[in-house]
């Protein structure tokens, strides 16, 4: 994969010329696209430099280059012991949970990958698991 090392060198030259402290370490195909590992988390300006370079490569179709992005982690969260029947008499819904999450500072920078699933803990229980 000699071609990849050339790309890494050219990306690093562009980043250095822009006085960035970021440098690329590896470039490799990943999940139908490419992945570029760097020494640190790149700033939006660094991502712009990388995107501009990738789009300038003749063997790459510009229409297939969407935008560079940072990897995001996904975690699983299980919330237990929530009253299934709310004080107003209605059942707990995923909208109730989303509203609570959106109004809690603990979840300020978190976005949900899917809507929360609300299930009753057991048929005879008045508690829910989200």
Query: Order of strands across the widest beta sheet?
Result: 3-5-4
Distance between the termini: 46 Å
By oligomeric state, this entry counts as: single chain
Question: Which overall shape is indicated by the principal axes computed on the Cα atoms?
Answer: elongated
Question: Helical stretch count?
Answer: 3
> Per DSSP, what share of the residues sits in E-state strands of 2 or more residues?
15-25%
- Structural classification: alpha+beta
Name the poorly predicted regions.
none
Q: Whole-number radius of gyration?
A: 23 Å
For the largest beta-sheet, the strand count, sense and barrel status come to: 3 strands, antiparallel
- The helical percent reads 25-40%
List the secondary-structure elements in sequence, H or E.
HEEHEHEE
> How would you state the average pLDDT, rounded?
82
How many beta-strand segments? 5
What is the total number of structural domains? 2
Descriptive overview:
It is a single chain. The protein has 130 residues and is an alpha+beta fold. The protein has two domains: 2-64, no CATH class; 82-129, no CATH class. 29% of the residues lie in helices and 15% in strands. The chain has three helices and five strands; from the N terminus they run αββαβαββ. Strand 1 and strand 2 form a beta hairpin. The radius of gyration is 23 Å and the shape is elongated.
């Amino acid at each position: 994969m000699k071609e990849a090392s050339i790309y890494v060198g050219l990306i690093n030259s562009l980043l250095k010329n822009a006085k960035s402290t970021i440098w690329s370490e590896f470039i490799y195909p990943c999940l139908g696209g490419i992945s570029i590992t760097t020494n640190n988390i790149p700033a939006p300006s660094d991502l712009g430099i990388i995107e501009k370079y990738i789009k300038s490569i003749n063997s790459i179709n510009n229409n297939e280059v969407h935008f560079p992005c940072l990897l995001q982690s996904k975690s699983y969260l299980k919330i237990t012991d929530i009253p299934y029947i709310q004080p107003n008499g209605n059942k707990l819904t995923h909208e109730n949970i989303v509203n609570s999450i959106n109004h809690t500072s603990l979840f300020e920078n978190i976005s949900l990958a899917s809507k929360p699933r609300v299930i009753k803990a057991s048929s005879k229980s008045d508690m829910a698991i989200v």
